[in-house]
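user: Kindly work through both lines:
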Amino acid sequence: MLRRPPTMSSGLQRRLTVLLISPLILLGLVNAWFDYSSADSVAQRQDQSLLALLPLLADSVVAEETSPGTGPVMLMAPAVEGFIKAKPEFSAFSIVDSDGRAVRGDAWLAGLPPTNNEPEFHSEERQGVTWRIVRQRVKSVVGDITVVLADGSDPRQQWARAVLLKVVLPNFILIAFAVFAVRWAVGLALRPLLELRDAVEHRSPRDLSAIDLAASPEEVRPLVQSLNHLFGLVNAQADGQRRFVADAAHQLRTPLAGLQAQVEAWAQAANAAVAGGAAPSGQEGVVMLRAEQINKLRNAARRTSQLANQLLALSRADARAMHSQPMQRVDLKQMCEVILESHLDAATAKQIDLGLEGEPAFVMGHEWLLRELLGNVVSNAVNYTPAKGTVTIRFGMRGTVPFLEVEDDGPGIAPSERARALERFYRLRGTQGEGSGLGLAIADEIARAHHSHLVLSAGANGCGLKVSLALPQDEH
């Protein structure tokens, strides 16, 4: 039986999901990079704006302080005043004297003046805000001073939060949603392929019929066509083998029947000569040896004839070959009585109690095949049950299901061997007697032709073997 490939569907879904989601992740990274570039560009423009405001802040110092501690007099330039009032919590300025003391503005911006007259930029963390600070030493009406401007709305300090809230989080939500959506879409798209897989996987090894091409996805139709072509070749080969076996068995039956008839007559004559003491004086031992050899030849002829009949029955019982033949109404009671009568002599010879139990029941099936099935199972039971044993044929209804059953108290079959016992030409280890290993195989093939299968289990009290078969119910 075909085994299900465990990674086929999951592997395809995983690969398709990765291939479809990867571009989204890449786009998210590109978006973050563009956002960072945009923030950096804005920050550079902001630095330029701060740099442009510095001269205006220096020009805002118009006179020295009028009273001690008040600092120089300032007339704030409109641009500087607008910058400070626009974002009072994120803007600051300071006028620092040559000693590094803040004489006007925010004292926290005080510090030693730069070593030259070039503007200096730096960033400083204060109360959770990263400030962009620019300072420059200039000459004014009050002497050398340092003008300082600080901006706490630098886009670069907000970049991490902006990226988290505006880029990473939305993209993560989008990607998470896309993963579920893509997996659902991929699963939906792959459903015809998975149904095709299940159809092939759950097929019987004997089912070589073509797969419906129209029901297959367009992308896998070439594969389905190849499978159908392969099924056709295997089916043709199997049909050829079945025809060969059937023809060979059929052709062998006539000469084997003639051979067996002659050997039977020869054996009867030899046995009669031994029993009647008709051998010439001094030749008794030779006659007995010859009679023994002839009996062995007779047994070999019987086995060969039985094997030919079994091969013919096996080829005719093939489940595929029987699908086209209509079933008929079969009386289980009548059929079981006929089988019992045909095996009664063999059972009596071994002092086996061959019995029949059941109630009237009718099934739909092929009567000659069911006779072959029951005959093979009963023959096996009689052959392998020890002398003075018991073999019981049962039939009837279990609930609403008709059944056939043969139970014996022979050596039985170990649970580990029961599955192989239904294989063709398989004989159990340590089996006594002669056989070809086809009896149960033929019975199981016939059961399959009736949409059922043989069930092997232990007999009463765990001894012997019980062979059971459920059959299609008669609808009449």
